[in-house]
């Protein structure tokens, strides 16, 4: 099945997790990183989840899931080790309008969590459509080795210059042409070597040739 790729903004969004084991922990870490208001329904938590609960990073409902728990959530993760409970909770959450993933039932899920590499605002994601999470993990390790933290720094610089270029280059067509030509191998090599001011200068010089200042 063809999936639609999307990057969600979760700041302040209510997200629910049923279960407090290894899989729930992995999903919770991603939710907290994205700023979601996270509630975990489970009689037991992993030590890491307990620590997060103690410091107030997540809300813990210290009992098994009960019908009626899942109103008003944006995303719900059903991650107990009880397939029947996972399905019951998922059906309730879906009926209440949430998007749901079921840890042991990809076919019944609304979305899958991709493997990812993040450096600042740069986010590289991998999906196998549920076919092989182990392959996602392997590819994530390869991407992490190829695209290190320096790419996050490039992005910070390029985003800053892009804001400036919106004023300096008159039309969207000019800007598109400019960026397609400017993020070339030479600029990337400078950035990779940590020569940020040289890269910045190279980009500014290129803008002088086609912008209103030329
Ligand atoms: C990417 C990642 C994100 C994350 O969880 O944060 C993620 N699983 C990861 C790892 C992983 N998961 C599993 C293994 C053991 C090896 C293996 O089975 O391959 C490993 C590898 C390991 O741990 O080494 C077991 C497993 N996974 C699912 C089932 C249920 C089933 O298939 O029925 C079973 C039990 C199968 C069984 O019982 O045998 C289902 C899903 N897992 C997904 C995501 C979604 C599809 C993503 C995709 O399209 O690839 C999907 C559909 C739903 C979801 O959970 O969103 C994370 C990578 C973390 C990283 O980057 O290191
Ligand atoms: N999607 C994935 O990435 C992935 C990866 C590995 C395994 N799995 C599947 O995910 C499921 C969970 O795996 P795990 O390793 O986290 O299991 P686990 O045994 O570590 O954790 C299960 C958790 O569910 C809680 N729980 C049990 N019944 C509950 C209930 N009625 N209400 C609320 N909480 C309840 C337990 O207290 C425990 O915290 C398994 O079915 C496994 O096959 C999914």
TrEMBL record:
List the keywords (alphabetical). Answer: NAD, Oxidoreductase, Porphyrin biosynthesis
Q: Which GO terms describe its biological process?
A: siroheme biosynthetic process
The record places domain Sirohaem synthase dimerisation at: 151-205
* EC main group: oxidoreductase
Record keywords: NAD included?
Answer: yes
Recorded GO molecular functions are: ferrochelatase activity; precorrin-2 dehydrogenase activity
Q: In which pathway does it act?
A: Porphyrin-containing compound metabolism; siroheme biosynthesis; sirohydrochlorin from precorrin-2: step 1/1
Give the organism the record lists: Sporomusa ovata
Tell me if NAD is a UniProt keyword of this record. yes
Q: Upper taxonomic classification of the species? A: Bacteria, Bacillati, Bacillota, Negativicutes, Selenomonadales
Listed under catalytic activity are: precorrin-2 + NAD(+) = sirohydrochlorin + NADH + 2 H(+)
Q: Any idea where the Siroheme synthase central domain is?
A: 124-145
Annotated EC: 1.3.1.76
Q: What is this protein called?
A: precorrin-2 dehydrogenase
> Organism's domain of life?
Bacteria
Do you know which Gene3D superfamilies this protein is assigned to? NAD(P)-binding Rossmann-like Domain, SirC, precorrin-2 dehydrogenase, C-terminal helical domain-like
